[in-house]
Design brief:
By secondary structure, the protein is an alpha/beta fold. It contains 12 helices and 6 strands. The radius of gyration is 17 Å and the shape is globular. GO terms for molecular function: hydrolase activity.
């Protein structure tokens, strides 16, 4: 079996490597080494004491490559902006980008939902979980859940909100890679999530339009592709990197 360059995974705001990617890792690991790091306040990474910055997260991500000379990066949501910044900061090492459910900068519609998410992070966890589920899950997937499934999922979300979510959502509101995207010089696949109720699908499409030669694909999911369409997401990544 031919081993291809290593792969880095960049998770989204309010997420973690396990939450955003765990169903994909076994398949993605078959032909390459997969590396990832939880951003400050997620997983076991200590919470930040200052506002987060894309450059610092990009450096943390690349440091997780553990000596790999070259690697591709899969970014999800805010992780797309981190991946783009890493590609520009380490052009000799990044071989390709796969950007899923990302945005160049939060448009008015997306920013309003991010601000509401941020506001609710300071309140009741159960209420925050209900809001997050309402915008994270695509409407078709959400509609198919039984009442028992939804109750269990809400409880899980409330229990696993990363402590660093406020800083991560704040960064999502500030992040702007509009000027960076035309400078991307590696093969890039941008994947939209057509039932996304958190990041406007049009914002992801606009991101693709700014990357020279970017390919476009779309998942039949909301803003939780690892839950709603993990097999198809992994297939798109695999086929592009091959």
């Amino acid at each position: 079996m031919r081993v291809t360059p290593a792969l880095l995974l960049a998770h989204g705001a309010g997420g973690a490597v396990r939450a955003n990617f765990s169903p994909l890792i076994p398949q993605l690991s078959r032909k390459r080494k997969v590396h990832a790091v939880d951003f400050p306040g997620s997983g076991t990474t200590p919470r930040a004491t200052a506002p987060l910055e894309l450059d610092d997260l990009a450096d943390r991500l690349v440091a997780a490559a553990e000596g790999e000379e070259r690697f591709a990066i899969v970014g999800f949501s805010l992780g797309c902006s981190v991946a783009v910044r890493a590609a520009l900061r380490y052009p000799e090492r990044v071989t390709a980008l796969v950007l899923t459910a990302g945005f160049a900068r939060a448009d008015e519609e997306t920013a309003a939902r991010l601000r509401e998410w941020r506001r609710r992070l300071d309140g009741d966890r159960a209420e925050m979980a209900r809001y997050l589920v309402s915008v994270a899950l695509g409407e078709p997937f959400h509609r198919r859940m039984t009442a028992e499934q939804e109750a269990g999922f809400l409880e899980l979300v409330a229990m696993t909100i990363p402590p660093g979510s406020p800083e991560q959502v704040d960064l999502a509101l500030r992040a702007d890679v509009t000027a960076d995207l035309p400078e991307v010089a590696v093969p890039t696949l941008v994947i939209g999530t057509k039932h996304d109720r958190l990041i406007a699908p049009s914002a992801t499409r606009a991101m693709a339009d700014l990357v020279p030669g970017a390919r476009w694909a779309e998942l039949d999911s909301g803003h939780a592709p690892a839950l709603e369409a993990p097999g198809e997401w992994a297939r798109l990544i695999e086929e592009f990197l091959a």
